[in-house]
# Entry
Amino acid sequence: MSMISIRSLTKTFGTVIAVDNACIEIRANEFFAVLGPSGCGKTTLLRMLAGFEIPTHGQILIDNHDVSEMPPNLRPVNMVFQSYAVFPHMTVLDNVRYGLKVTGVAAKEARQRAEETLEMVQLSGFGSRKPEQLSGGQRQRVALARALVKRPKVLLLDEPMSALDAKLREQMQLELARLQEDVGITFVIVTHDQDEALSMADRIAVMNDGKVEQIATPEELYESPASRFVADFIGKVNLLDGHVVGAGTNTVTVDVAHLGQVSIPHQGHASGTVSLAVRPEKIRMDSHKPDSALRMNGRIVDWAYYGDSSHIFVQPEDGPRMSVTIQNETRTTIENADRGDHVWLSWQPGDTLILDR
Ligand code: ATP
# Structure
């Protein structure tokens, strides 16, 4: 059963359609991410869940109750903001129990619950410190504890890592995923950072220009993107334009400039102008012409070394620039290749996706 049911939800600001007919079902105890580029409408969607914006059309049900027009303080949700909202003049413990005190929870119980929650976020022993005596990551955990102590059914997180540096962010991502499993609350996180969404979430909604483009697990989004936008936004991808010229059982023949006619495994319908998509790590790079239908040659124009892997850009004579990722450890066939060298690229039909243009 769904914990959150978002039904045909639309929000307009004047002529801007910030969220356009979104339909999303979020399960109880799920770690759900809303991912998309700046301005795609993800914060507006989250603010409607929190009650800070009233939908123009559509409905939001939380735990089977229609909350579409319910004020924020009456909803069974709590929100953690980008700039972790903590009171600077209060101790950590007071920060965490404050929300309980104002809702009339008895002092003894408030203290006990605040201490339990601090333990949950691994801050036991920090209760008497002021926020200024904490690191960025610890302050972020105080903000989390403040939201969790009220035992909401749903925790909403708006870019919660954006103020942290890269290393700390990675650590907090793991901690947040662990915490979500421990507390068993439904988490909805909004982020523009695909690594963050992929590493933490059970499922992700990818938004583009107000619309939900795809809802799927991280693996499905990467392996079977539903659109060119999703393929391009989740990880790196090479896109080649082509035209469908024939279809068989579970295969489609596409005429692609620089490749000719190629047969690609494909379930479902495809016709007209399409894009062939291939991930950089699926491409093999050789100095000799490979025995494959999907091959092209070009010149290495750039080579970025990342320790375990290298990212290489190859420019065919008259086609789009291709990006290739190779694992440095398994780099054998192309040992001494460098910028300016001519190389062959090839990949398997089964590693090729056909996407609508
Ligand atoms: P970011 O990652 O930059 O925060 P976002 O995906 O969260 O972006 P939103 O903040 O939801 O995007 O904004 C979606 C669209 O709605 C944008 O075009 C934005 O300018 C517009 N918008 C958001 N809030 C308002 C408002 N209060 N008044 C007018 N337009 C708004």
About this structure: The longest strand covers residues 2-13. The chain has two domains: 2-231, 236-356.
